[in-house]
């Protein structure tokens, strides 16, 4: 994210461009450069910081799923919340997401955790914090990313109509508390983590509710069934 090198999908660049001129983003940029110069390994790689935005242009957003931080294990994070690259073990929270989808929609769980198929249909898979140091969970919280992703959510709230917000856990629910429920459908449930999924995530039926709402608004529903074979497009 060096000066003058920010590559961002055009619809997002139009609404988020001013954020990059704010002092907090300059501070964040300096922090990331210093961390890398100190030899620390940062995930995901720089070209994937904004992968969620690049795959889901603003005008195509139908569903927003909010995560918190990227996975901090080697080879896991690639810019989409809850998603991992093909060949990487499916994380426990995503296993539970698949279980709920199977109960809700009868969809057989995928044998991988690569969610770009959702993103390409208008599911914005947005983490609140977009980078992390290897093996140090939450190490980049409070550095400015939260303010940037607040701006992303505001843009969806203001510029789009009839979007479904899936807010899993108190963190996501607080972050998107300002979303206009007259314009959008806000679905809330506990986080799908093994620690909390049995407290109401299982049985929430968010996937069928999202599709029912989209259909009621004249929109194409999401095909939540992930393909068996996946291709990574860089």
From TrEMBL:
It is an enzyme of class 3 (hydrolase). Its EC number is 3.2.2.27. It catalyses: Hydrolyzes single-stranded DNA or mismatched double-stranded DNA and polynucleotides, releasing free uracil. GO terms for molecular function: uracil DNA N-glycosylase activity. It holds the Pfam family UDG. The active site is at residue 69. SUPFAM superfamilies: Uracil-DNA glycosylase-like. It is found in: Cytoplasm. It comes from the Bacteria. Keywords: Cytoplasm, DNA damage, DNA repair, Glycosidase, Hydrolase. CDD domains: UDG-F1-like (cd10027). Gene3D superfamilies: Uracil-DNA glycosylase-like domain (3.40.470.10). The keyword Hydrolase applies. PROSITE patterns: U_DNA_GLYCOSYLASE (PS00130). Excises uracil residues from the DNA which can arise as a result of misincorporation of dUMP residues by DNA polymerase or due to deamination of cytosine. NCBIfam families: PRK05254.1-1 (NF003588), PRK05254.1-2 (NF003589), PRK05254.1-4 (NF003591), PRK05254.1-5 (NF003592), ung (TIGR00628). This is Uracil-DNA glycosylase. It comes from Neorhizobium petrolearium. The gene is ung.
